[in-house]
Design goal:
Elements lengths: L10 H22 L4 H10 L4 E2 H8 L3 H13 L3 E6 L2 E9 L1 H20 L6 H17 L13
Antiparallel strand pairs: 1-3, 2-3
Helix pairs in contact: 1-5
Length: 153
């Protein structure tokens, strides 16, 4: 089941199993950095800039209560802080602390290294094709930028 007659995996199974593989690598890297996978994702999003709670919830796909709990726990660990939003004094933005930024950098670099190693048996042309095709799927489905491009940092 899930395999074509020639032993290849179909697109649905390949995408689902690839997501499972990347999630497992991401979770393992997070654990080794003393984070949950969700905290790792939060830190990676905040590497770009501080976010308002509403924008952060939409980016991470979390309900308000789930996001509040995640930010609370991460704040208690000294990794993020809430700060006033200069554009709306009733709102707050979430930003990395100095400690959170350092941890985020290490987690991000290690996670990039591990994910980059997954297609190690592909040659350069195959890697470019894989990146182009997956990039198109991501863009066509408007997936939020929850993990930035390593070369852009």
């Amino acid at each position: 089941m899930g395999k074509q007659g020639d032993g290849r995996i179909g697109v649905v199974a390949a995408l689902v199993r690839s997501a499972f593989l990347v999630n497992a690598v991401y979770a393992e890297s997070a654990r080794e950095h003393g984070l949950t996978a969700q905290q790792g994702q939060l830190l990676c999003v905040l590497m770009a800039r501080p976010y308002g709670m509403g924008e952060l919830g939409a980016t991470l796909g979390l309900a308000k209560s789930s996001l509040t709990g995640l930010v609370d726990r991460t704040e208690r660990n000294g990794l993020v802080r809430r700060e006033p939003d200069p554009e709306d004094l009733r709102a707050v933005r979430v930003a990395l602390t100095r400690r959170g930024a350092a941890l985020a950098e290490g987690f991000y670099a290690e996670t990039c290294r591990r994910v980059d190693a997954l297609p190690a048996r592909l040659d350069d042309a195959e890697r470019e094709t894989l990146a182009a095709l997956l990039g198109r799927v991501v863009m066509d489905n408007a997936v939020p930028e929850v993990f930035g491009e390593p070369d852009a940092r």
